[in-house]
Structures are given as structure tokens and as C-alpha cells.
Design brief:
167 residues; alpha/beta; five-stranded parallel sheet; 5 strands; 40% helix
């Protein structure tokens, strides 16, 4: 299974989870958005569908692509049409920069969540071990991650998210 990261080189390299993933051969860095595999599951906040267990086959065949860039640059990526665009559902960040903030996940957390939701849980834990706070992310979000990983599809993920937020 391949993990790809479009990396726009806009963050502090010492804190960048994407670069650490690449350093430990857990992901492949792409410097050019035109190199993104259009069939991979591309994590983007603009997607109409949420990541769900039904995406497992896509992840297995074509991998996952994360976008590591500023919000200004991510707007520019809207022009690209990816076949399998997905958004992540509600989760709480546990990275030191955005600890406790919903939806403010690091690239590493986004990959952990996607792997967990698509039932590659061992791979998710393997990635989580790159940082001391990685397993904390899984522990803090455990109830949601488990529920998401048992959903049938994106629609059910959204229902779980909505119910959780309303509680």
C-alpha cells in the first residue's frame, strides 16, 4: 500500500509530520501536484464524500494521497479533479500545534485516521508510533474511529458524525 504526500514545502521542517513519514519510508513525497495519482484516495476538505470502509479497495490498489500545503495553496488544488476525493469526518487533533482542535489534523493524523477507518488498523498503529502523541490521537478518537470503521458507506459516516456532534 502506497502513501503519497503532495508537499508544498510551506511548513517548519522540524515539525512536519509529512517529512518524517518520508524519512522513515512510510510515504512518498510529491513536489508537483500533477504527479498525484488521480485514482488514489485523495484527502481534501472539498470532497463531497467522507472516507469510509467502502474505500478499502481503492486504498489497497491505488494508495492514499494527502495534501500538505497552506489553505491558500489548497484552494489552487481545487482545479484538479481526482476520481476518489474524500474528506475526513469529525476527529480531534492531538498534535502539539493543534491539540484538542476538531478537524485540525496533521498530515500524519489524516493518514492514521484514513487507514483506521478503511480497516487497515495495524498500519494505522504503525504510523502512529512515529510520534509520541500518535497513539494518543487514536486513543482520544477511539470511539469515533471504531464507529467509523464499522460504517457501511460515506452517508453512514456523516450520520455518525452528526449524532456525535449533537451529543
Amino acid at each position: 500500500m502506497k502513501l503519497y504526500i503532495y508537499h508544498a514545502n510551506q511548513c517548519n521542517p522540524k515539525k512536519c509530520t509529512a517529512l518524517k513519514m518520508a524519512k522513515f519510508n512510510k510515504a512518498i513525497i510529491l513536489k508537483n501536484p500533477y504527479k498525484i495519482n488521480k485514482k488514489s484516495l485523495v484527502l481534501t476538505p472539498f470532497a463531497e464524500k467522507a472516507v469510509s470502509p467502502e474505500d478499502r479497495e481503492i486504498v489497497e490498489k491505488f494508495g492514499i494521497t494527502g495534501l500538505d500545503c497552506s489553505w491558500n495553496d489548497i484552494e489552487k488544488l481545487k482545479k484538479f479533479k481526482f476520481i476518489n476525493e474524500r474528506a475526513l469526518p469529525f476527529l480531534i487533533a492531538c498534535n502539539p500545534t493543534n491539540y484538542g482542535k476538531p478537524f485540525k489534523l496533521s498530515t500524519l493524523e489524516a493518514f492514521i485516521a484514513t487507514l483506521y477507518i478503511t480497516n487497515f488498523k495495524e498500519k494505522a498503529y504503525e504510523l502512529a508510533r512515529l510520534y509520541k502523541w500518535g497513539e494518543t490521537f487514536i486513543n482520544v478518537n477511539y470511539e469515533l474511529l471504531e464507529r467509523y470503521s464499522k460504517a457501511k458507506n460515506s452517508k453512514e459516516i456523516i450520520e455518525i458524525q452528526k449524532e456525535y456532534i449533537e451529543r
